[in-house]
Amino acid sequence: MHILMIAPEPFFEPRGTPFSEFHRIRALTTLGHTVDLVTYPFGKDVDLPGLRIIRSLKPPFVSRVKIGPSWAKVPLDALLALTSLRMALTRKYDVIHSHEEGGAIGIVLAGLLRKPHLYDMHSSLPQQISNFGYGKATWLAKGFEWVERLMLKRSQAVIVICQDLEDTVKALGVNVPTVLIENASGTAPLLGAGLGVRRSLGLDADTPVVLYTGTFEAYQGLDLLYGAMRHVLATTPSARLVMVGGDPDQVAAARKAAAAAGLRESAIFTGQRPAEEIPAFLDAASVLVSPRSSGTNTPLKIYQYLRSGRPIVATRLRTHTQVLDDDVAILVAPTAEGLAGGIVRAFTDATVQALGANAQHLANTKYSDEAFISKTKRVYEVLVQ
């Protein structure tokens, strides 16, 4: 099939939803489909057979877009809608496949063309309002809730990326087929590559390394992690915290926060790294951490963590427990003390190596690339039926 895909994100940038979109497109082209992707005027072009990227116009005075809701998205989404309409009227498509708030554009075009619409639900839009600091704007949350319900009702099938989102769709009482496709597709660990990463960071081969990868948004719980490392250093002074991610402004603020927590010499910030380097960083780690303190979506990093075979320490919240349990990870209270206890246990308890092996087995079976492609095939079969 020839697919018109609408993605209201900078594609490609190394962050959650663009990663998910990349792997969704890769699965679709692997299955023999072709994709015209209409996206923002920002991001790096990627070369995938069967993919064509069409970028909308750039509004004046907008040079980037941050993660989550923002006023910059208003003109960006308006221009995205115009570009999508132009493509819909000048090309022949079999399916409209839209991501996030792009579903509002997608359902209109699908109705216009009389084609099926597939909604790729990466998050609950009303929950985004709360997670990104707009919780007091109840009118905005109500508006997003109305839009979300409409997008679901007007879709012929919905992809959800975690169990919590499937529960959200059911709670809304919307009678639409859903297929759960976890953001589990990714790169296998690069065994041995971690030594080169350690050398580049000035770390010895036996230095205990606590690694975090991902965005530096407030809901990630990084303040808990800095507080935890202060406790860890009391028992393991040689430990180092390596933070991979964050834009330059976020990294500057994080350095100050880490220094205020007493980590001036013990925290290393690399900034954003290319996606292809992340497996080497994972191989360099002694312990992998996900200190997320709010939200319910499963972090994309968790699936890469599972593949690495390294001990995982994560907060015992639904955002993690949809995928992780006590057989594959050290789950702790969402406090600095809880995280510290989990990290120290990962350093000192020999039995945690079994958790890493169990995690790898889970990744290689339930969350394999083959399973990801198979689920993508199934949702398109549901869509056509």
Description:
- The structure is a single chain.
- Helices cover 45% and strands 16% of the residues.
- The strands form two sheets. A seven-stranded parallel β-sheet has the order 3-2-1-4-5-6-7, sandwiched between helices. The protein has a six-stranded parallel β-sheet with strand order 10-9-8-11-12-13, with helices on both faces.
Residue share in helix: 40-55%
For this structure, what is the CATH class of the largest domain? Answer: Alpha Beta
The assembly state of the depicted protein chains is single chain
Structural class: alpha/beta
- Our estimate of the beta-strand percent is 15-25%
The shape, in one word, is globular
Number of strands: 13
State the low-pLDDT regions, or none. none
CATH homology superfamily name of the largest domain? Glycogen Phosphorylase B
Supply the key terms:
385 residues; alpha/beta; Rossmann fold; 2 domains; six-stranded parallel β-sheet; 16% strand; globular
Any chance you could write out the topology, listing elements then pairs?
Layout: E1 2-7, H1 16-30, E2 34-39, E3 51-55, H2 73-90, E4 95-99, H3 103-113, E5 117-121, H4 125-131, H5 138-153, E6 157-160, H6 163-171, E7 178-180, H7 194-200, E8 209-213, H8 222-235, E9 240-244, H9 248-260, E10 267-271, H10 278-284, E11 287-290, H11 301-308, E12 312-315, H12 318-321, E13 330-332, H13 336-348, H14 352-365, H15 369-384
Parallel strand pairs: 1-2, 1-4, 2-3, 4-5, 5-6, 6-7, 8-9, 8-11, 9-10, 11-12, 12-13
